[in-house]
Amino acid sequence: MKLMVTGGAGFIGSNFVMYMLKEHPGYEIVNMDALTYAGNLENLKSIENNPNYTFVQGDIADMEEVDRVFQQGIDVVVNFAAESHVDRSILEPEIFVNTNVLGTQVLLDAAKQYGVTKFVQVSTDEVYGSLGETGLFTETTPLAPNSPYSASKAGGDLLVRAYHETFGLPINITRCSNNYGPFQFPEKLIPLIISRALKDEALPIYGDGLNIRDWLYVEDHCSAIDLVIHDGVNGEVYNIGGNNERTNLHIVKTILQELGKPESLITYVTDRPGHDRRYGIDPAKITRELGWKPKHHFETGIQETIQWYLNHQEWWTRIQSGAYREYVNKQYGDR
Ligand code: NAD
Ligand code: TDX
């Protein structure tokens, strides 16, 4: 099987590439990634010489670049490539529409033209909007995105759905809750707090810190996508989540305790505009129909994650200094 993974140099994509090469040593993987600020080939150092792995630098919104990859003969597409940070989408929405909507459409067209056995769109619970104090997102919850990021992801999802209904493309859409684990870019809450706390910097908490996110260890997200590729019923949406709802304040205090740092570092700042109050996923469908079960408990997963960031300080320090671009140029030429 030949898989095209887009966005495989980002946080979840790189974990997924490594996971699939380990779980399915016979599969070939082509990783197409534009290497935006969030793409980091250092994440993939452990597998860069694997003969079943190739990297292509390219933009999913560029028809010619996408076409060149499909000419290699692709069986399955897993689309992780996206602009993924809500705060950046508030400052600069255009690039989100370009990659998350137009980029998805370009990929869909190529998948339709060349024919694939599966197109998996990796999406997010944020397309459902915000929950009140009770209830969970199911696959039939209406889409009600509140940020330019989630609106652009919802736009991509709707195109994926339409290519199934109109052209019979064999698709699945997965909607996962907040991921955490190794290689997450230090703009996102958990790595941001760890890296700033280690430097005794103020820890910015938006609003009252009581917004709730539903956390899933990244490897458990990868195992769910693996199942969907193989057993997902064409046209279906699968929600992925581990029933781990926590307030942001709880997350930050857990990290501080683990690092032995004082809570006085916590600094309440102006709330994110349109800040969703609560996310919570009902994973009953993927559990029942595909037999998926997460392996990692939040309490141990967060400890392992903190330990990973402690052991890989050079990884995030280089990102924060921008020096990892030198590695890219050294490895793949100056482009
Ligand atoms: P990330 O920002 O860490 O990585 C995104 C990757 O996509 C980067 O390597 C970047 O270079 C690449 N990319 C961006 N624009 C591109 C383009 N036009 N063409 C090709 N490559 C491009 O993101 P992530 O956190 O790993 O998220 C991956 C996917 O999972 C996204 O689609 C996101 O919406 C979804 N998702 C993320 C989470 C989460 O908690 N991080 C949860 C649910 C769903
Ligand atoms: O400095 C901060 N202070 C703060 O209070 C940051 C960066 C975040 N927060 C809050 C906002 C959210 O309530 O923490 C929570 C998590 O924020 P992010 O890490 O930015 O994640 P979120 O907005 O929930 O979106 C993430 O999960 C769903 C990913 O970035 C998305 O790509 C994914 O779709």
TrEMBL record:
It catalyses: dTDP-alpha-D-glucose = dTDP-4-dehydro-6-deoxy-alpha-D-glucose + H2O. It is an enzyme of class 4 (lyase). The keyword Lyase applies. It comes from the Bacteria. GO terms for molecular function: dTDP-glucose 4,6-dehydratase activity. InterPro entries: dTDP_Gluc_deHydtase, NAD(P)-bd_dom, NAD(P)-bd_dom_sf. One of its GO terms (biological process) is nucleotide-sugar metabolic process. Its cofactor is NAD(+). Its EC number is 4.2.1.46. Residues 4-305 form the NAD(P)-binding domain. The keyword Lyase applies. Keywords: Lyase, NAD. Belongs to the NAD(P)-dependent epimerase/dehydratase family. dTDP-glucose dehydratase subfamily. This is dTDP-glucose 4,6-dehydratase. The lineage of its organism: Bacteria, Bacillati, Bacillota, Bacilli, Bacillales.
